[in-house]
Specification:
Elements (H helix, E strand, L loop, with lengths): L4 E5 L4 H13 L3 E6 L12 E4 L5 H11 L3 E4 L6 H6 L1 H22 L2 E7 L21 H14 L5 E6 L2 E2 L9 H10 L4 E4 L3 E2 L2 E2 H13 L4 E4 L6 E2 H11 L7 E4 L19 H7 L6 H23 L1
Parallel strand pairs: 1-2, 1-4, 2-3, 4-5, 5-6, 6-11, 7-10, 8-13
Antiparallel strand pairs: 9-12
Helix pairs in contact: 1-7, 2-4, 4-5, 6-8, 8-10
This protein binds NADP nicotinamide-adenine-dinucleotide phosphate.
The site of NADP nicotinamide-adenine-dinucleotide phosphate (NAP) has 27 residues, from helix 1, helix 4 and strand 5.
């Protein structure tokens, strides 16, 4: 497929940051970037920027109708799982109503709509899950993601839903994730209590960018699971992180599920089987240890650049 016009919503987010980096370095696609915080985005020649809130559906419709992108990537989302329990209206508007609007817009302007979902659409009784397993969310975030999947897949033939989980990124832009949180605590010498019984497959965001690009170039619709190759408990992920970064793993204390104090329930045996993305798209997912080594190197490089600039 030739270069395409791709519109990305929520462009300052973690997954969007990796997408933008990947598209700029590996493709010649033209990007139209929508964000509340365009001033925080790297500005590249040939890209178009709109400062807009993802909840401003009218303005988003105007921009989409003006730009008529071949592909719309919805990387905006209400991603704080615990806050979703109390901020239900905003969470529903951002995670579901936005998707409904984008599916309608995409039908009119013939766009390929790509959205992100989560293993939290499942109940966690028998993970890791395949694309064919039945959703049964156990918290409000999961219900919004289930609602989003239905809004996209039932209303638009040219819709792709990419489910992922426990992401970690080489570029954070001030945002955090589970692995960066563990790193921060251990580097400061703080003890952390991490649950043993919750399983997922940590996913390097640059692999998600590869999946998205394959889905665009191969014109694939439906559901794809983008999850890393290691199925691990949160405790095991934290210990692996400590080992790779040569930090004190004795600071990590395993705790049981019933000792967790979170507003939202989490699936226990969550996680995603990535076989369809591997075989149909030809994606090779990064093992956790290799991803952590790359992360370590990129953190070293950015500290080095910072010191040089500081001088
Ligand atoms: N993080 C994970 O581990 C994970 C796992 C599975 C699925 N996902 C899904 O992947 C998608 C992207 O996740 P992410 O982790 O990259 O998200 P993120 O870093 O939290 O960024 C989401 C973006 O959504 C916009 N946004 C957030 N709250 C908003 C609000 N109240 N009003 C208006 N806009 C708001 C912001 O974009 P702008 O300010 O740039 O407009 C924000 O940067 C989401 O749909 C998420 O549910 C994430």
């Amino acid at each position: 497929m030739n270069d395409v016009n791709i519109l990305i919503l929520g462009a300052s987010g973690r997954i969007a940051t990796s997408l933008i980096k990947f598209f700029r370095l590996e493709t010649s696609h033209r990007l139209i970037l929508l964000s509340n915080f365009t001033e925080k985005l790297p500005h590249y020649e040939g890209y178009t920027y709109y400062k807009v809130n993802s909840l401003d559906f009218k303005e988003i419709k105007n921009i989409c109708f003006k730009e008529r992108p071949e592909v719309i990537i919805n990387a905006a989302g209400y991603t704080d799982v615990d806050k979703c329990e109390s901020e239900r209206n905003t969470a529903w508007d951002l995670n579901v109503t936005l998707a409904e609007n984008l599916a309608s817009i995409s039908r009119v302007i013939d766009s390929h709509l790509i959205s992100f979902s989560s293993d939290y659409v499942f109940d966690g009784l028998k993970g890791p899950y395949t694309e064919d397993d039945k959703q049964n969310p156990i918290n409000f975030y999961g219900r919004t993601k289930h609602g989003m999947e239905n809004a996209c897949l039932y209303n638009l033939n040219t819709s792709t839903v990419i489910r992922t989980n426990c992401i970690y990124a080489s570029e954070a832009k001030g945002k955090t994730d589970f692995i960066r949180w563990v790193l921060y605590k251990l580097e400061q010498g703080y003890g952390v209590e991490i649950v043993e019984g919750q399983f997922c497959n940590p996913t390097y965001t640059e692999d998600i960018a590869v999946v998205v690009n394959k889905v665009i170039t191969k014109k694939r619709y439906g559901i794809y699971h983008a999850g890393g190759p290691d199925w691990l408990s949160r405790y095991e992920i934290a210990v692996t992180t400590a080992k790779v970064f040569s930090l004190d793993e004795t600071l990590i204390k395993p705790i049981r599920l019933n000792q967790l104090n979170q507003s939202a329930r989490r699936p226990n045996k969550g996680g995603l089987v990535n076989l369809k993305a591997v075989t149909d798209l030809g994606v090779k997912f990064t093992p956790l240890e290799s991803g952590l080594m790359t992360l370590k190197q990129s953190m070293r490089d950015s500290r080095f650049t910072f010191v040089l600039k500081g001088n």
